[in-house]
Amino acid sequence: MLTLAGEGTRMLPWSRGLRKEFLPLFDVGEKGRPVLKPVAHLVLETLSEAGISDVTLVVQPRDLAAVRNYFSIDPRFLARHRGHPERLEETRRLYERLLRLRVRFATQPRPIGFGDAVLRSESSVAGHPFLLHASDAVLDQPQRGRIPRAMVDLLRSADLDAVLLVRRVKDPRRYGVVEGTPEGRFRSWRSLRVTGIEEKPARPRSHWAATALYAFSPALYPALRRAAGRAPRGTETELTWGIQELLSSGGSVKALVLEPPTAWMSVGSPESYLRALRASHLRKSRG
Fold this sequence. Notes:
The protein is α/β, with parallel strands linked by helices. Helix content is 32%, strand content 28%. It is built from 10 helices and 13 strands.
């Protein structure tokens, strides 16, 4: 599942009519040269390389046509530009990927939180474990798809309710903060047993921030609904509430620790986008 449903207010006025998830970052093209791809495009590739064949994109109704247009195969577009085949290489690669995917869309009528956007996809999940990835950030990893694939494998092999991806940050007050205890390694990643999670706490209890990539069992949905039902009227529904509800009701949650050489590149603010654009150009120019 990919979410493209927030307001993007930190990117105003640019985001007034344009989705931040379609801001471009550099990637390596078919011939080894840097090319620009929207972040949502890169996220779709990441999930596809992780073995996902069924993808739901959660969008606001006003953005549905534009998002559907980008993630649809358009033979007429190829025909119009057939005189410049070198310019179509990445579009052809995307179309080939789309042929292997079932792409569905769900809408979030009002932007009332990441958790609410996730609830809109419940019918698409249909009772199966799933990956969730916000589309305003992406993993830049040597082997695309390796980390989300490992998260799903851990979820299934340990019979967990959720697997998070965490990274150490200097100021955790801006993130969902994860508490946990070290639990050895899962393959090549350090692992934590998660004991708590809190959204943007004034006094964080750790320096572990949840990234916007998760593996969940279907148990997330009733937990998230219960948590949202207790929230004050008019409050945005946070995904972290659902995770804490899973823990409070006896569920099992673990986390893998994100470490170099993999990087987490976000376009959620002007400053983070500038850093991500520069970093992606540097990393992809090296080949």
